[in-house]
Amino acid sequence: MKIIVAIKQVPERDAQVRIDTWGKWIDESDVQYAMNESDAYALEEALQLREKHSGEVIVVSAGPERVGTTIREALAKGADRAIHIDCNDLNQRDALGVARLIADAIREENADLVLTGLQSDDLGYGQTGVILAELLGVPHATLILHVEKTDTGLKVKRELEAGWFQEIELPTPAALTIQSGGNKLRYATLMGIKKAKTREMRVVTAAALDGAPVAVLEGIALPKKQRSTQIIPGDAKQAAATLVEKLKFEVRVL
Amino acid sequence: MISLSATLAEPQSFTLVERLLFFLLILVSGALFWRRFGPIFHKILQSRKDPDFRLSPIARRAWDFFTEVICQTKVIGQRPLPGLAHAFVFWGFCAFALVTLNHAAVGFGMGFLDPGTWLGRAYFFLAAAFAIACAVSIFGLFVRRFFVRPIWLGKKASYESGIIAGLIFLLMVTYLGAFFTTDSAPTARLLWWIHTLTLLAFLPLIPHTKHLHLVLSPATIFLSRDGFSQIPPLVGDEDFGLVTGKDLTQLVSLQAYSCVECGRCSEHCPATNTGKLLNPKEIILGVRGYLNEFGPTSEELLLGKHNSQEAVFQCTTCGACEFQCPVGIEHLPIMIGLRRGAVNTGAWEDDYGAKLFNQLERGSNALGISALERDKFIQKQELPVFDGSQEYCLWLGCMGGYDPKGREIVASFARVMNYLGTSYGVLKKEKCTGDPMRRLGNDLLFQQLAEENLKTLAQNKVKKIVSICPHCVRTIQEDWKAYGTPPEIEHHSEFMARYAGRLPKQNSDEKVVFHDPCYLGRYRNVYDAPRTVAGLAGQIIDPPRARERSFCCGAGGGLAFLGEETGERISDVRAQELVATGASTVGTACPFCNTMFRDALAASEAPPQLLDIAQLVARGLPSAEPNLNGGPKA
Predict the structure, then answer these.
(1) Which residues of A touch B443 (CB under 8 A)?
(2) Where are the alpha helices (DSSP H) in A142-206?
(3) Which of A107, A142, A196, B346 could be bridged to A75 by S-S, CB 3.0 to 4.6 A?
(4) What's the pTM value of the predicted model, to 2 decimals?
(5) Residue A117 forms beta bridges with which residues?
(6) B285-303 pLDDT, tens per residue?
(7) Do residues B279 and B340 share a domain?
(8) B68 — phi, psi (to 5°)?
(9) pLDDT (average), residues B130-146
(10) Are A204 and A168 in contact (CB under 8 A)?
(11) For testing the chain A interface, which of B247, B443, B444 should be mutated: the one with the most A CBs within 10 Å?
């Protein structure tokens, strides 16, 4: 089974972000990066499928040179090889643009399965995987927690609202977007990192690929701090209790 | 009755047959000794060289040798009565070195210590005094081993120990007997021969039993690493810790063969004492067993043969074993080495461990909480931000920045510093020091965390750090050295003890039982400072196991993050011990101990209050702070 996992490097969960002077992206000077969380789960799913059915796991990631660290982390966790789409303007590309970059970079691999995370932790479009499937001309399913290989294709478990799950079958080749939490993630090891050095990381330049944006990012903004007034109903005792509750759990000043 | 002119009787002449027989017996005894000892010696030499070994500073080694070998400080200090008995046997052996050499020389007519001379007489009488002490001691030790039978010596009494004790006793008796006869008497000849045969029987027994420590442990102590729990660096692309036999270094092999199986490590081990699989003695003997079966060039995995992964990951790294080992075995580098071997290769599969590692691959703290919460805490407490102008950087650590109890400790300590007028600030961002990763053996993550933190500290031009957490202190000061030069750091107990004279003394007869944190005591050798500080708030009492022998809270070695323990909870056992002292307050100096006891004490009926030393001091400060950073109130 040949599996391609598209991963994205995003600001670390605890990064303190500031908007840069252009107002179109965050100031990257003091930010540390990590693998997008749901992509980490997509990689885990791919590695487990390979362990069960053998085959190959290829990771693909678009972004500037720094993306190399996240690619190496994926190789360290067990991916066989990697494709790095070198581009410095990833943030300014829309989901269609990014999906086109990835589709062009992986088309010739003719993979049985393409996995992406459900959405990115920074922009959160949640579309790249779905558009990618369309561009590759393969069926797709989203919000996947578990993938099982069957004789005819795949059986997957989807997460629905309100604690419901859906199981569906689809043929291969296919593309799936993976939801966080379906598996337990393995940790990166020293031995993995050392081995990763010897694995192939092919760099393709974005210029050689098609990826012009349709939607243009005009600007980003931090969430506004809101001041609001609430009237707490009820008698004094009841109102006081509600107030304490709110101060404790909503405003968190107690 | 022995007369004043009496001295040691020695046969004056031996026949040629006797001499030949003696010579032959020496050869046989020596050959039997080497037949067993040679392969062991070879295995030690064949092991991988220790990459970080340096003979200097030789003065430290000489001092360790003098105190631990010659003076037997650890043997006596940790078990006074049997320790003293052992010391007398050892000193007896030392005194006998010359006697034995002369004894053998006499057999070839070449005796050099003449019992007739003043000097010879004096020496033989001195040796006789040691012989009596030695004989009494070995008899006492025999009674202890076979009749008193402390459980730490093992369930089965080893019969070899009985034989060895008998031989030693016989050596002493035959020596002393020679004072009661004359040179020409047949008894003298008989005693000489019995003494000789005993010696020659003793020699080959040494490498066959744990008495191998006679030969090895002086070297083990002399060659031991500099400092407590020194984790060796990984060298090259193939070094992941102790994975296979090939990774065992000469020091590890030497230590494995030096174990005398006294069980002191097990006696003090929190895991062994709470019904877990781990027994530090068995870990060391496991390495020995592996060396015997597979050797130091084998590519068989170390874990799963004579040692189990489960046991190795039950260690809290409290260091009680390493601290008291009388033969110089360093358990922590071995234990952590085995963990490194399992974690660095991905062989360790543990849901909690993987979660912890993943949290720190992506986030900043071991508790897996958003860094925003730390910012909120800093704002709420109005902690000044470090900008390079202040004297101290107050390192919050994961517990101080995110744990509710830890935050209380930080808040109290900040009040103390405000009162003293110390200038300090906290960093805008901090990452876990990597302590749990270091102890669990995840070198990849530990290195990343250490390097990122070192970079942040350098960017902020931090010169001095103070922290409420002994784990942070130890990791920053010692373990980060592998990746850079950390700033000066001290624990808040040391800081407050320095200013104890300027802090208010509370008029209170409240009894405070102080629990020594492992990473402050055994790791940092700080015992008095927290007592001085807590003493400002009440009367300090010690639990039965205190100071160097303090019993762990169960949180160290990354275990605080690894889910439920098997057997009894270590924290429960310790908490009960603290409650039993009758103290109304439990004083701690580590946020991990604090959090462990918070849960464990909740189970007791009328739990004593639990306070960090900073909280104990802050309690006595005037409630309103007159001027922040403005010096003590008049």
Answers:
(1) 190
(2) 190-196
(3) A196
(4) 0.89
(5) A178
(6) 999 999 999 999 999 999 9
(7) yes
(8) -80, -35
(9) 94
(10) no
(11) B444
